[in-house]
Amino acid sequence: MDTVDDMTELESLPVEQLVELIREKTGAGVNLSFPGKVLARQLGRRVRPRTMRTVKAHSAGDEEASAKNLLIEGDNLQALASLYREKGQVDLILTDPPYNTGSDFRYNDKWDKDPNDPDLGEFVGSDDPARHTKWMKFMYPRLQMMKAMLKPGGVLAICIDSRELFHLGQMLDELFYEENRLAIINWQKSYAPRSDNRHVSTATEYVLVYAKSERLAKTGLEPRTDSMDARYQTRDGDSRLWKSGDFSGPKALTHQGMVYGIQSPFTGEVHYPPSGRCWVIPQREAKPLLERWGVTYELRDIKDADARASVIGVEATGLRTVKALMLKTPVGEAKEKASRLLADGPWPQVYFGVKGTGRPAMKRYLEDVKQGRVPMTYWADEDMDDPEVLGSVSWDHEQSGHSQTGVDELTAIVGAGHGFETVKPMKLMTKIIQIWCPPNGTVLDLFAGSGTTGHAVLKLNHDQSAERRFILVEQGRPENGDSYAKTLTVDRLKRVIDGRWADRKSHAALGGGFTFKTLEKRVDAKTLLMMERDEMIDTVVASHSSTGSRRGPVLIPVPDEAAYTYLVARNANNEGIYLVWHGAGSNTDLTEEVYEAITEEADAASLAPTYHVYSRRNLIVTDDVVWYQIPDRILSDFGLDVRTESFVEEN
Questions:
Q1: Residues near 275 by Cβ (< 8 Å), separated by ≥ 6?
Q2: In this predicted model, what pLDDT tens digit does every residue of 235-271 receive, in sequence order?
């Protein structure tokens, strides 16, 4: 059993892992044990950030659109460490990791001690007896860092199939805690029986949805559809569209005062809620609604403890008295008045069925319905009623699309021959983004593949006038010389941005853009000081946190770097970012002469008179300069302690 007993080692652990250790020792929550788990838990703290080089040829959109979104080529664990500026700022992580099929992920045993080892490792085959352990060692540090990337109310939605469903669920229960599990979505990946299993055809896959904090997370409504609204009609001459709604709700046991008799003005029968349920409003509110039938009611004790106890599911002995709503108008007269109104219309909001012979029901008006629907516990079709809770969820392919749809969508966009046999459908990804990412939020995908998540964000932004941004990470298959991050993923995103699909049909240009970056050298003081100017510019732009905040999109690079000696980017406040660096052998200090040149460049670019300047030394004193020392500030922005260059964990 893995233990941490040494006091020195305990002191080195971040607070989050100490909390996990306490839960483990006290038996709280779920704790999964597997060989090498202690090492796997430490990898996320030991992986080093990398410098990122911008490749303009693979980027898309104007300077503002391209600065908004990011596509990173490289290892996603290194990318997470390099995205320190985004730590704690991501609204939704939506990703589709390898399913451990026998040919979809590699593992290098050297990573157990050094996650920075450049060897890609060997493919883990389906006959490898340690395949599940290797997959968990591969995923665990990534899940740790994913949690750190989320906002306090952020959500992780991670796709998986049955091979690793239980292992992934246990790891997530341990890292996020069971109380933060929002849903287990079961979506239909195919609509025809498959011969992939000797016993039962595999037709579904899963999306596990966890919040960093269930209390802070927000689950949004889905847009209403025409077919949903078509159910609202007016059969009684009411000027407002309505449909029949239940006049009862759950939890009779805890709402015993809402279980009471209601006498029908049509038959004189006393109605009670269905077993285990209660009426949705108390007598004082129900009385004026019932009297709209032209009759009068009064509260009366009718000695109905046995009938009420039967509904509630308790013994009648000791049940407190709750008076019934009984007709004060004689039953014969009440029937005559109510029947006349039933024939002439419109009916009151609380009615007794279309013939007056049913249990009380309530008219639900379309104009009063929320402009959306709660994600349903079963999404078979759009005629289902709204549920009361969000739990484990099954989505038919009409709701989520299916795997072949995803492949067909990709083929239509980039053409045949892309080599992808499994692609998540757009409908599935857009639904998840709509539900768990706000219109101005950030979506992160660490296993971007063909770029479906990025495409879904662009489409939702176009269709809903939203401002979501995406960060995609994809390594491709570098062992085959196949970096489809810069081929397939870039091609797909550029085509949907411009509306130039390979099928040559008419498609809307979604607009937007992205910056393509590739991970390069490890970030340390020696590497920084040996950089050429172009490399240093990319590193400054990637690391900079303007005005003490890491919120908002990345900096916007200047469109023509050659036109400026020092200006490299601007922030959201239209303030310039300036770099005094032309290599280690040139002047790297902020001097009076450099300051004068910087102010002239700011005027030429119409930028605000606040100057964010990176240099090795600062030789002047002026209030309008915000100064950052190379390499100290850059190391700090990447989460590295400037004294030790160790990764700074969140406390």
A1: 310, 311, 313
A2: 899 998 888 888 998 889 989 999 999 999 999 999 9
Size of the chain, expressed as the number of residues it contains: 651
| Alpha carbon distances (Å) from 79 to 39, 47, 490, 542 | 20, 10, 18, 12
Question: Which H or E run contains 534?
Answer: helix 533-543
Q: Delimit the domains of the chain by residue range.
A: 32-178+400-518, 226-367, 523-637
d(CA 423, CA 404): 8
Check: pTM over 0.70? Answer yes or no.
Answer: no
Q: Which value, in Å, is the radius of gyration of the alpha carbons in the chain?
A: 31
Q: Give the class (CATH, top level) of 32-178+400-518.
A: alpha beta
Q: In what order do the strands lie in the sheet with 350-351?
A: 242-246, 361-365, 350-351
Q: In 3D, which of 551, 555, 311, 331 has the Cα closest to residue 442?
A: 551
Instruction: State how far Cα 249 lies from the chain centre.
Output: 31
Lookup: tokens for 389: 């809770």
Question: Which of 299-308's residues contact partners 24+ apart within 8 Å by CB, and which partners?
Answer: 299/323, 299/324, 299/325, 299/326, 300/324, 300/326, 302/261, 302/270, 302/326, 304/261, 304/270, 307/261, 307/270, 307/272, 308/256, 308/259, 308/260, 308/261, 308/272
* Rounded average pLDDT per 10-residue block, the chain, 651 residues: 50 62 63 76 79 90 89 90 87 89 67 70 74 86 92 94 86 91 80 55 80 89 64 86 87 91 96 93 93 96 95 92 95 95 94 92 79 45 32 51 66 74 79 91 93 93 92 78 77 92 88 92 85 87 61 68 89 92 83 95 94 94 93 84 63 37
Rounded to whole angstroms, how far apart are CA atoms 554 and 514? 11
The Cα–Cα gap between 443 and 454 comes to 8
Determine the residue type at 550. R
